[in-house]
């Protein structure tokens, strides 16, 4: 069983939604990333999403674009990101790590070289934003052979026909993009979300993570009532922007956001489920 | 080589999923997949629909001014002393470049899809102007994304777009040029996909754009083929066109793919020289990768990050190229060369003084290559340059290089 599947079994058994923070590797500086990941776990993260910086992050809003630019300015490359996971795994062998990014750095490294290295350093899942299932055959096959989960996105615009296709290709969990837009947008509609997740559950048994519009603890709590996992990215990454010269203050602030979300999410699950 | 040229069924490409051999495809975030399926369906339906095709044809005649002339540049040919040079005069199309052939077609599709808002990216501003023009004519809202640096160097076109009622948004991320404008247009589309039609200006992007834009631009090659046959009784020996994304080149080349005797040469922007690294020539000096929805040749570093490009012409200043060109290069059906800023500038002046035609700086790259090769060909041979756009938009750039301010 993959670490991701195992972790979702645990959170399901304990009746809570998983919290998945996203950070861009190398932002604001490469040496911050591994200590930051440990801080996020200590603050209540169940899984981690580690962003691989890319020069042209087409599906991301300004917050993560700037994070990519900061990371690239420090020379953070895909092989550096893999080394960060290796370093993280020295002291944490439990928390699943998903690499999230764009395909081209992986293309350049070569699918086989990438998958072998990712498996070796302890990556658990790979989500390539610009790689829909139709184009992913080769990479998905290699990932699965290596015991890694190919993670795919489902969007509000995904038809039922496509949903079946994505569900068949996906492993680990399905990442539901909660809104039409780029990361960090602010118009998540919790009411529509519940109905939509129900439709996905009718087709797939995989856990459902929701991301792209989780801006604060209240939104996280609302989403936690209907989703198996809450993914929060821009709300954390924007803190790196606010503390450009003080990485330790960024780490403290990021952990604080995760802790608040954790508390709010757990409280919302304990309380009687509200209509969302 | 002729075996390849005769063996391939060119009409069968791309395949159902938009692949030209290993290139092309559809590499976008899930949110856009539904819209691309919808676009593909409507494009396939209407390209078979006599009523749609008749409307397109009428617009091309009455609004664009087609057919554009094929002009025998006799004085230039005489000076070069070799092949006869013919110019396919896309600079005479309404709005001054070939771009409008495609925006007319896509806007008609947008209408049929019931979309009320049009977005576009633009480099030199020619595609932006062509999009703003058709949006004005059809009464559609129009937003054009343009790199902040390009807004500086192509200010006449920015003003034209604004006169036409378009909202021109300056893109300040990344290298502030065409690729960043494309990123920003994609972000807009993903956000407003319900009411918005994205008119991509070149033969790149996710399927069906490379095929669809090619089909709308192929009118150039169909006319040129018939015109050359009528004027000379034979096919040309070579076709030459500049390649940024590659829409004017594929428009000229495609209808000739089944004519094995016709050479095709795409001219990329060599900038300050390939050896300097400051250029925009992915087919000459890049390698295959994935960007902006398709697999194709790219300019990237060893980590797969897209690198900054350079060209004197904003319209060629792009790190990728249409996937069909990538495929034609690998097959050897077309060849791709590069021309420096300086050579392009000299060709710009020579065409202007010799034939009384001021070409766009993009087009000047193709002219520069012909100035190089035509003297080595025989006077009974001929070649066609796609004169893809007029140079009025570049007067500020050229004057500034010569120390003048207009």
Description:
The complex is a heterodimer of chains A (276) and B (406). Chain A is of the alpha/beta class and 276 residues long. Chain A has helices at residues 3-13, 30-42, 62-73, 78-89, 103-109, 111-121, 137-145, 160-169, 190-201, 217-224, 234-242, 247-270, and strands at residues 18-24, 48-51, 97-101, 125-128, 149-150, 152-154, 174-177, 208-211, 229-232. Chain A has one domain: Aldolase class I (TIM Barrel, Alpha-Beta Barrel). Chain A has a 9-stranded parallel sheet with strand order 5-4-3-2-1-9-8-7-6. Chain A is globular and about 45 Å long. The two termini of chain A are 33 Å apart. Mean pLDDT of chain A is 93; it is low at 272-276. Chain B is an alpha/beta fold and 406 residues long. Chain B is 43% helix and 18% strand. Chain B has helices at residues 2-7, 33-46, 50-64, 74-80, 99-112, 126-138, 148-153, 155-163, 178-191, 209-217, 219-232, 247-253, 282-285, 323-331, 341-355, 361-373, 395-401, and strands at 19-20, 23-27, 70-72, 84-89, 117-122, 141-147, 167-171, 196-198, 238-242, 263-271, 287-291, 293-298, 335-340, 382-387. In chain B, helix 6 (126-138) packs parallel to helix 8 (155-163). Chain B is globular, with a radius of gyration of 19 Å. The chains are: A alpha/beta (276), B alpha/beta (406). At the A-B interface, helix 3, helix 5 and strand 6 of A face strand 2, helix 2, helix 9, strand 11 and strand 12 of B.
């Amino acid at each position: 069983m993959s670490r991701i599947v195992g972790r979702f079994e645990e959170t399901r058994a304990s009746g809570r939604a998983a919290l998945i923070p996203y950070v861009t590797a190398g932002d604001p500086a490469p040496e911050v990333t591994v200590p930051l990941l440990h801080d996020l776990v200590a603050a209540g993260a169940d899984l981690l999403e580690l962003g691989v910086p890319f020069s042209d992050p087409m599906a991301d809003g300004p917050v993560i674009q700037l994070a990519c630019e900061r990371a690239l300015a420090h020379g953070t490359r895909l092989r550096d990101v893999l080394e960060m996971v290796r370093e993280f795994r020295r002291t944490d062998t439990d928390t699943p790590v998903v690499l999230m990014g764009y395909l081209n750095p992986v293309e350049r490294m070569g699918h086989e070289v990438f998958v072998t290295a990712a498996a070796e350093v302890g990556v658990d899942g790979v989500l390539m934003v610009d790689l829909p299932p139709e184009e992913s055959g080769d990479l998905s096959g290699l990932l699965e052979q290596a015991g890694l989960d190919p993670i795919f996105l489902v969007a509000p615009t995904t038809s039922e026909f496509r949903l079946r296709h994505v569900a068949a290709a996906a492993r680990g969990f399905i990442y539901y993009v909660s809104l039409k837009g780029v990361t960090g947008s602010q118009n998540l509609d919790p009411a529509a979300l519940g109905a939509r997740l129900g439709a996905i559950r009718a087709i797939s048994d995989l856990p459902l993570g929701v991301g792209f519009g989780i801006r604060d603890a209240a939104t996280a709590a609302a989403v936690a009532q209907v989703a198996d996992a809450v993914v929060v990215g821009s709300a954390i990454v924007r803190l790196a922007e606010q503390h450009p010269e003080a990485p330790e203050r960024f780490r403290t602030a990021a952990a604080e956001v995760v802790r608040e979300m954790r508390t709010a999410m757990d409280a919302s699950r304990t309380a009687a489920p509200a209509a969302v | 080589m002729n075996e390849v040229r005769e063996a391939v069924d060119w009409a069968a490409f791309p395949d159902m999923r938009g692949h030209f051999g290993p290139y092309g495809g559809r590499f976008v975030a899930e949110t856009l997949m539904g819209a691309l399926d919808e676009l593909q369906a409507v494009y396939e339906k209407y390209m078979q629909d006599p009523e749609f095709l008749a409307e397109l044809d009428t617009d091309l005649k009455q609004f664009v001014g087609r057919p554009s002339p094929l002009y025998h540049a006799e004085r230039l040919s005489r000076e070069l002393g070799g092949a006869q040079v013919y110019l396919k005069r896309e600079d005479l199309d309404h709005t001054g470049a070939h771009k409008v052939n495609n925006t007319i077609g896509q806007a008609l599709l947008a209408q049929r899809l019931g979309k009320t808002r049009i977005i576009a990216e633009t480099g030199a501003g020619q595609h932006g102007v062509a999009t703003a023009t058709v949006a004005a004519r059809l009464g559609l809202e129009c937003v054009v994304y343009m790199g902040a640096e390009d807004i500086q160097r192509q200010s006449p076109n920015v003003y034209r777009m604004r006169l036409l009622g378009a909202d021109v948004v300056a893109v300040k991320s990344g290298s502030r040029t065409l690729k960043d404008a494309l990123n920003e247009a994609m972000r807009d589309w993903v956000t407003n996909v319900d009411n918005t039609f994205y008119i991509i200006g070149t033969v790149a992007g996710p399927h069906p754009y490379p095929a669809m834009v090619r089909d709308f631009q192929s009118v150039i090659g169909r006319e040129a083929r018939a015109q050359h046959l009528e004027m000379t009784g034979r096919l040309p020996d070579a076709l030459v066109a500049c390649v940024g994304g590659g829409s004017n080149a594929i428009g000229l080349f495609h209808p000739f793919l089944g004519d094995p005797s016709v050479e095709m040469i795409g001219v990329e922007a060599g900038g300050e020289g390939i050896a300097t690294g400051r250029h925009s020539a992915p087919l000459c000096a890049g390698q295959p990768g994935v960007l902006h929805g398709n697999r194709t040749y790219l300019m990237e570093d060893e980590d797969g990050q897209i690198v900054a490009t350079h060209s004197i012409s904003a319209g060629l200043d792009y790190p990728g190229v249409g996937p069909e060109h990538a495929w034609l290069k690998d097959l050897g059906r077309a060849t791709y060369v590069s021309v420096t800023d300086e050579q392009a500038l000299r060709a710009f002046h020579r065409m202007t003084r010799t034939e009384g035609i001021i070409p766009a700086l993009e087009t000047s790259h193709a002219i520069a290559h012909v100035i190089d090769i035509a003297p080595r060909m025989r006077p009974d041979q001929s070649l066609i340059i796609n004169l893809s756009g007029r140079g009025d938009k570049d007067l500020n750039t050229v004057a500034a290089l010569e120390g003048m301010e207009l």
